[in-house]
Amino acid sequence: MALDRPTDALNSLGFAKAPADTRVVVAMSGGVDSSVVAAQLAEEGYDVVGVTLQLYDHGAALAKKGACCAGRDIHDARRVAEEMGFPHYVLDYENTFREAVIDEFADSYLAGATPVPCIRCNERVKFKDLLETAKDLDADCMATGHYIQRKMGLEGPELHSAADAGRDQSYFLFSTTPEQLSYLRFPLGHLASKAETRALAGKYGLSVADKPDSQDICFVPNGNYAAVIEKLRPGAGEPGDIVDMEGQVLGQHTGVIHYTIGQRRGLGIGGLTDPLYVVKLDPDSRRVVVGPKEALSTRVVPVREINWLGDAPFTSQDEWHMGVKIRSTRPPRDAIIRPISETEAEVELLTPEEGVSPGQACVFYAPEGSRIFGGGWIWRGQ
User: Fold this and answer.
1) What separation in angstroms does the CA of 32 have from each of 93, 97, 179?
2) Longest distance between any two alpha carbons in the chain, whole Å
3) pLDDT tens, 305-324?
4) What is the pLDDT of residues 338-350, one digit of tens each?
């Protein structure tokens, strides 16, 4: 029986059987990261099945660079599968992606929030529907090219930051549930740098070895959010007033969708001695509220839709002293997390942060070490 085998009999994916008897679905975006994962597992002898998601009209995006899941990327993923000799499938998830990700992105942006659609895509598409498809294919697990680590703890699989802090994608994967984590594998999380990944791509002779990394949100060409919102929601760019914190009109804007919390440049307000920043967006009154930099400071952050990855229940303590990240590009800051329910909390930042915006994620990190304890979504509160 497999249960009687010693732990050293486990293969590299953690199963007590030969790689050839272990089927793994690899989510392939067409980039170098997921291509290396698929190639490495194929070389190790696993029964690899590559799957690429068509998330939007790739015909219009065939020649577009800097984004994932476009037509060029589907072609690249298929080519890697051919080079390494494993089957590859393209699944049309356009409707699912539009309903689960794009529509919410547009609506929350119109409501003055700063959404993070890549998290919703992982949560609602890749780690939900695609994961179920992997199970339908009788796969033992699903592997991705994300830079994050899955480690076995006393209570089961744990989520940990990537070894390379510069590539770590934990902020975008906080909503991974314990059930999903038991099925997922992240073979690149332990690598020291992206250079190692590209070296592996070269070793396997992959055609994507020198392909640039994707930078943009896949459905937002050149990072132009406003243009996408106006296309999805015609009339969204209606003009309005730029006002100070007392409501005094300082100027006009061409649409709330062109502004984000913390923005300083491009306000079009001249003749001021001190710089002003966007401190609030009020889409109902079509007002952009500006104020001094200190008005951006936030100490208490309301968080909901919490996904908890701790061993003890979230509400088992009145307070959790942890690090929290409220921007993907900022390091974790010391905070006190006070549970309100299993899915809501008040987060007190020990050092106030600037530019905290509804719609962003608040991710929980262990005070020491690399473990991630989940996180939630920042909202305006009551």
Assistant:
1) 22, 23, 27
2) 79
3) 999 999 999 999 999 999 99
4) 999 999 999 999 9
Length of the chain: 382
Q: Is 109 helix (H, G, I), strand (E, B) or coil?
A: helix
68 in catalytic set: no
What span, in angstroms and rounded, lies between the C-alpha atoms of 287 and 266?
16
Joined together, the tokens standing for residue 371 give: 């473990």
Q: What is the pTM of this model?
A: 0.87
Q: How far is CA 58 from CA 65, 104, 112, 237, in A?
A: 12, 21, 29, 26
Residue 7, token pair as written in the block: 């732990």
How far is 201 from 203, CA to CA, in rounded Å? 5
Contact (CB, 8 A) for 110 and 230: no
The gap between the terminal CA atoms of the chain, to the nearest Å, is: 56
Radius of gyration of the chain, Cα coordinates, nearest whole angstrom: 22
- The residues that bridge with 354 in the sheet, in sequence order, are 297
Classify burial at 329, counting beta carbons within 10 Å of its beta carbon; exposed 0-12, middle 13-18, buried 19 or more: exposed
* pLDDT digits 0-9 by tens, 255-268: 888 888 888 888 87
Q: 351, 296 in Cβ contact below 8 A?
A: no
Strands (E), the chain: 23-27, 47-54, 88-92, 141-143, 148-153, 156-161, 184-185, 240-243, 249-253, 277-282, 287-291, 297-308, 320-325, 333-339, 345-354, 361-365, 371-378
Structure tokens at 117: 């659609």
Contact 304, 343 (CB under 8 A): yes
Q: Active-site residue 218, yes or no?
A: yes
Query: Which of 108, 66, 112, 104 minimizes the C-alpha distance to 220?
Result: 66
In the chain, what are the helix, strand and coil shares in percent, each to the nearest 5? Answer: 30, 25, 45
- In 3D space, the residue among 175, 117, 178 whose CA is nearest the CA of residue 152 turns out to be 178
Is residue 236 pLDDT above 80, yes or no? no
Write the CB contacts of 44 (distance below 8 Å, at least 6 apart in sequence). 12, 19
Q: Pick the catalytic residue from 69, 118, 121, 141.
A: 121
Catalytic residue among 69, 118, 218, 362: 218
